[in-house]
Amino acid sequence: MNLPVLAETLAADNGSLIGVLTLNAEKTLNALSLSMVDLLSAQLAAWADDERIAMVLLQGAGEKAFCAGGDLHQLYSTMVDQRASGQAGDVLANDYANTFFAREYTLDYRIHTYPKPILCWGHGIVMGGGIGLMAGASYRVATEKTRLAMPETGIGLFPDVGGSWFLSRMPGGLGRFLALTGASINAADARYVGLADRVLAHADQPQVLAALRRQPWNGDRAHNHALLGAVLRATEEAGSSACAQGPLRQHRDLIDQLCGRESLEAVLAAFAGVHSDEPWLVKALAAVTRAAPGSLALTWRLQERAPRLSLAEVFRMEYGAALHCCAHGDFAEGIRALLIDKDHSPRWRSADSTGHFLDTPWPPHAHPLAGLDK
């Protein structure tokens, strides 16, 4: 049986073990399904309690992608069924959506708070749910092929999986820019905004694994973190993986100026007033003209609110917002236009359609993710 997540262990010289988790859905660019979420969660839980496991490596199969996001096809079919059953607008009616987002966000939170070092090897495409897995790892490696993006506003969603947390904490207006535009960034920019810790050549991975197996691991978390960090630092310093300054950093001053406005309307007007021949910037600014207006408005509000919240509170806020997106139309329409009919002509609702999406149907003690920080 070809499992969508492979789990194995590598023996270190001193008898400790390195756990290796490989997303194994290469044909779909390792897009994250519910079964993959459950397999990852179960294995991480088991290894957390296994004294032999010193650290975990998280990687993707193949050369193209670590993880290109969530598997949206099953989610789409449940949203269509929800509308057909006359339950559109009911955030509690879609059992699959409720389950998928609850388990995905719980997995992401587990990675952020895992008791052992996790190394995420973010080679190739890392989008949406893939960034959700990578962002919380103890050490994040980007390579010469890494391309990261949170393009959810283009499909009627918002940058979730903790995006409200880490994007809102990026310097200046960079996080807000990435959240609204869904712009793709390379390894250098990923390191600049804190989504990667080291930039290594993908060909260096066998060398890194060999060095990790030689380390004197023990049961002390801080000691093991230091060992992993030292191996990555030494590999980066000895290698030739440095890449040129990325376009996000190159345009930092302009982006800060554009995104420093007090309202979404003012920011979008400023975007429209930019005249440039630089392809990356032109593509990023054009993306907001095709995005769902309601998603842009929701993303703006999430980015405003998230800095005042804990990580667990952000995931709880995003959970309710994601279920509203599933129940109210634009998300299904975005998937239809991009992945199902592929006509790239979504029929979006108005900008104020998501005004109530931060309302929660649960009291705090009954929230499905109430136990995250307990």
Provide a concise account of the structure shown.
The chain is 47% helix and 11% strand.
Question: Any overview of this molecule?
Answer:
The chain has 374 residues and is α/β, with parallel strands linked by helices. Helix content is 47%, strand content 11%. The strands form two sheets. It has a six-stranded mixed beta sheet, sandwiched between helices. A three-stranded parallel beta sheet has the order 4-6-8, covered by helices on one side. α2 crosses α16 (330-340), α3 (95-112) runs parallel beside α4 (129-135) and α8 (205-213) runs antiparallel to α9 (221-238).
Helix content percent band? 40-55%
Ends: how far apart? 37 Å
- Strand arrangement, largest sheet? 1-2-3-5-7-9
Low-confidence stretches: none
Mean pLDDT: 96
* Beta strand count: 9
The secondary-structure class comes to alpha/beta
> Shape from CA axes?
globular
The sequence of SSEs as H and E is EEHEEHHEEHEEHHHEHHHHHHHHH
Report the oligomer.
Answer: single chain
Tally of individual helices: 16
Strand content: 5-15%
Biggest sheet statistics = 6 strands, mixed
What Rg is obtained from the alpha carbons, in whole angstroms?
20 Å
Per-chain topology:
Blueprint: E1 5-11, E2 17-23, H1 34-48, E3 53-60, E4 65-67, H2 72-84, H3 95-112, E5 118-122, E6 125-127, H4 129-135, E7 139-142, E8 147-149, H5 163-168, H6 174-181, H7 187-192, E9 198-199, H8 205-213, H9 221-238, H10 247-250, H11 252-259, H12 264-272, H13 279-290, H14 293-305, H15 311-327, H16 330-340
Parallel strand pairs: 2-3, 3-5, 4-6, 5-7, 6-8, 7-9
Antiparallel strand pairs: 1-2
